[in-house]
Predict the 3D structure of the following.
Amino acid sequence: MTDGPFDDASPDEEETVGRQRGVAAMLTAAGLAVLAMVGVGAAVAQSDDATAATGTTPDALLERLDALEADLPNNPPPLGAQLSADTTWGTVEGDATSVRAVLDTLEPELRQLFIDADDADGDVAEGVALVARGWLDIWTGTTALAVAESADLAFPIDTTDELGVATGADELRGDMEVGLELLLLGRARHLEGYGLLRDLGEAPLDAQLRIDDRASSAEAYDAEVRPLITRMLSHPDPSVLVTTDRFDTDSPGVRSRAMSMSVVCVDREALEELGGTASEEVLAQLEDVDRIDCEDLPGADTE
């Protein structure tokens, strides 16, 4: 019975084997130390990621939103529209393909932020959820517009083949309509969400300034671009003129009471939510709007 395979080894061989065992033990220990360090580092990183990805307190949600702001597009399309004088269509301005590529990389974080904020309570959570969902709408909308941008825009709209089937322009226009509808929806959520977060003012100073800028951009879009896209899609104008007073002439004997009235431009959706009738009580709850469509609505020149 022996104690091991090296009972008959010479002293030199035993010394060599001993050194090899010592080196192997050192390497094993070093390897374990490295693995331990990597494991601890990975655990810390995972812990930090988990905190960043799942924090749902107002401060955490605002921090997560601000972390995305540096990479989010400054001003997603459409940036404007050129309406056709003889058709109910036009051309939109802006590069949807590049914006879609940027949002592709941010979509998972935006989606998780929306889910977490939507599950949380409070005004900050509501605002962050609106903003994140708005960006997801814009991501989907630019995806549809990117299809149109990559297509042959030279196709005429009214051509058909020998069977009377449209030759493809209708499908292109359909993609654009879907994309524009989603972009309008996303921008509307931003108008509400960024506006709410601006009014709350609970973010750190630098982050709050970025939120304020986003809210101002959303308001400018609502006033200057939204009416153009709405008309391009053949939807009712977002603004409507309502009469504030009638039969009260400011020039007795010169201007008839029948022709005397004052009008104000208000948001159509807000008016409809309050019943659709511009009574004094309803008008007291509405704010005047200053959109470009107010300037050419029927009756806009009424004094």
